[in-house]
Amino acid sequence: MRLLARAALTALATVAPLAVVPGVVAPGPAVASAAGAAEFQLDGRGWGHGKGMSQWGAQGAATKGLGFRQIVNFYYPGTRVGSATGDIRVLLTAETRQALVVGHRSGLSVRSVSSGASYPLSRAGATRWRITPSSDNATSRVWVYTDSWHLVRSIAGQAEFVAPSMRLYLPSGSKVYRGKLRSASAGGQRDVVNIVSLETYLRGVVPREMPALWKAEALKAQAVAARSYAAYERANSSRGHFDVYDTTQSQVYGGAGDEQPQTDAAIAATRGEIRAYGGTPAFTQFSSSNGGWTVKGSQPYLVARADPYDPVRTWHWTLTQAELRAAAPGIGTATAVTVVARDGHGDWGGRAVTVRVTGTLKTVDVPADTFRSRIGLLSTYFRRV
């Protein structure tokens, strides 16, 4: 089953400088060593950073009969029921050109962001419409494609296409989105931003973050967590022309083409509901599986605790010399890999905090999150075999 549940992974994947990180001293050596260009074997558990809600844990809790509020209460202790409404601005990262191109359809219009003036778009033989910026980025130029591209109108500042739904043409193909598609200014560049209601946004998020055939209460818990996470980012980010990314830098969002009846029902059943802390949206991080222990995060409600609901997803990894050189540059040939500090929560002394890579040229201590991201390990909850 495909697992795309890694909403906050990107922040953890940011490469940190090589250094010794204070932590609980690892019990026992936890060393893998060999002569020459050896490979090193790891056993691991959990998929993702382990903070907040485990999605496999939510499914496990729902299977045991817990309701969605009981699930989110467990994973975000100290938070309370809150509410969030309004629109959210989503950066569509797949569009890398200075253009916004949509398919022709009835009811399509183009709108000036600054003045609010709207112009219906209709042209015999039209198949696509396009917005491009002027060379100084001060004007939006609206084009129609019939036999070729023809300039239709110039609009001061930013402009957006508006219709109940639109097919957006991207360098990699096309997708259908609801709401507005804006050619938004980003310094001297233009980005494509989808502006939709928070509820509509969730319809394109929840089925990408959790399998739609899972238990209804797990899906509801995911809807509340995803809505809270989006509301938190909207309130706390300073990204200018958008609020959230459509990738794991925020939450994976696929637009109207990813909507599913089961997740639509979960979103409708929890409409507007979020988790709040101190009267504001909570930072409801979540990941696929925590391996049986949640991980302490940056907020009081992101605590480390045993998780009786997570089924403990396990994995095995063979570390190659190339991977170790990427994780700890300049070591030469790795001769030993040692976990020198753990967080103290769970089996094996908990998750790795610091990994020491010994090589023929030097020895380097690497923060476990950096070690994980540079290699692509599923989590920092691992030990040597």
From TrEMBL:
Keyword Metal-binding attached: no
One cellular component term from this protein's GO annotations in UniProt: outer membrane-bounded periplasmic space
InterPro entries in UniProt: Bact_Sporulation_Assoc, SpoIID/LytB, SpoIID/LytB_N
Transmembrane segments: none
A GO BP entry: sporulation resulting in formation of a cellular spore
Stretch forming the signal peptide: 1-26
One Pfam family here: SpoIID
Keywords: Signal
All residue ranges annotated as the Sporulation stage II protein D amidase enhancer LytB N-terminal domain in the record: 188-277
Top-level taxon: Bacteria
PANTHER family found in the cross-reference section: AMIDASE ENHANCER, N-ACETYLMURAMOYL-L-ALANINE AMIDASE-RELATED
Protein name in the entry: SpoIID/LytB domain protein
Organism: Nocardioides aromaticivorans
